[in-house]
Amino acid sequence: METTKKGKPKAKGNGQGTIYKMSNGKFRGQLTIGYNENGTPKRKSFIGKTKKEVSDKMKAFYVDNNRGLLPTDDKITLSQWFYTWLFTYRIHDLKPSSFERYEGLYRNYIESSSLGKIKLMDLRTHHIQAYYNSLVSEDGKSPSTIKTINKCLKSCLNQALKEGYVAKNYCTIITLPKDSESPKDTINVFTLEEQQTFMKECINNKNGMLYILALGTGLRLGEILALRWTDINLKENYININKALKSTYIIDNKGNREFTVIEQPPKTKNSIRTVPLNNNLIDLLLEHRKKQMIERDSNIDIYFDNNLVFSTPQGNYLSESNVRKSFKRVLKKCNLNDFRFHDLRHTFATRLFENGIPPKTVQSLLGHSNISTTLNIYTHVMKDTKDKAIDKLNFLFNL
Question: What positions does the domain Core-binding (CB) occupy (predicted)?
């Protein structure tokens, strides 16, 4: 930039900064390299004996810093930036349970890692790629774990890119490990006979109605534990699903962790849905309500009425872990040991498919955001159906 006749700097366009002659005869150049929180510009100065010398220094600065890193923050590491991003930009816009997962990724894979120690201004794709490769080859981490880390780190670097700390998001051209060709988790469902055996045993279990409702609606455990009677329309026969119970840790920026149980929106926006109830389920729920009122009246001095459909004798949330343990005890009595609670949801979907309900309808009832998740269950059901169909033709080949 040139000076005016009055000695004031004359601005140049395209971010080239200003150059002017000082009273001592030397030249001084300034570049705006960012802005403070109050909106005032951050500037870097260059001094030389001639205007050309200053101009060359400024050009060299641009070449050396074409990655976009703000020089006032040229020592910040990836770990430091990740922490800032997490506790400044994401702490309030993530569900507490999601924030806990992000914080866990930071603590386990970024904070003290070789990758986390790299300065942002020096970070390149090959650093990230090498780190991911080592996690797979040396630590045995799965492709899904690497993809989860990269998704989180990519979001972190997007913010760094917006603020001028990096020139590009180096996560976008990473070669992620491919999932193995091994089949996905086996879908385990009750046969009709097993389901009837299980439901009969539920009558003798304090959480039996909860398990029966899961079989009759396909609700997730967190959705069931958060249910209030106001969510159930006993006249129109349906349930409104609009929340889920989640056990998580609330974490502050000093790393303090406090365990808590919270209600939060369901897993995805598709999980907010209405699920119809059959008449038999309505009758069972009404009977359950009567028993609950009797229990409430017998504990009136210590009962806190949260209007929960399923609660402790004191009216509080049921523990997810206790419900799962109780579920295992019921299974054991039925000699059905290889099932998870989530398999009740798969069993519900399977019964629908067996009765000719279209996949899109099943997807809506289950609240799946992706039809492929629903079709994975459908494929399992159809394989079993095809096997049975072929077995029926077995007699034709008895030569």
Answer: 76-161
Please answer whether residues 220 and 200 qualify as being in contact, where contact means their C-beta atoms are separated by less than 8 angstroms: no
Which pTM does this prediction carry? Answer: 0.64
Please tell me the predicted confidence (pLDDT) of residue 276.
96
Residue 138 pLDDT: 92
pLDDT at 399: 57
Cα Rg, the chain, nearest whole Å? 31
Active-site position among 51, 243, 267, 345: 345
Assess whether 92 carries a catalytic annotation. Answer: no
75 tagged catalytic: no
Which residue type does 237 have?
A: N
**In a shared domain, residues 359 and 211:** yes
Between CA 190 and CA 231 the distance in angstroms is: 28
- Distance CA(144)–CA(146), nearest Å, equals 5
d(CA 271, CA 365): 9
Work out the average pLDDT over 93-115.
Answer: 92
User: Is 289 an annotated catalytic residue?
Assistant: no
Boundaries of domain holding 319:
192-387
Confirm whether 124 is a catalytic residue: no
Number of domains, the chain: 3
The gap between the terminal CA atoms of the chain, to the nearest Å, is 98
Which one of the listed residues 92, 178, 235, 254 is annotated catalytic?
254
Query: Looking at residues 274-279, what average pLDDT do you find?
Result: 95
Count of residues in the chain = 399
Q: What is the pLDDT of residue 11?
A: 39
Helices of type H across 41-77: 51-64
Given 246, 267, 346, 368, the catalytic residue: 368
Supply the mean pLDDT for the chain: 85
111-149 in b/e form (b: 16+ CB < 10 A) is: bebebbebebbebeeeebbebbeebeeeeebeeebbebb
What average pLDDT does this structure show over 311-319?
93
Contact between 308 and 208 (Cβ < 8 Å): no
Pick the catalytic residue from 20, 131, 220, 243.
220
| Same domain, yes or no: 121 and 252 | no
Is 43 assigned a catalytic role?
A: no
Distance CA 151, CA 144 (A): 10
**Would residue 87 be called left, alpha or beta, if left means φ above 0 and alpha means ψ between -120 and 50 degrees?**
alpha
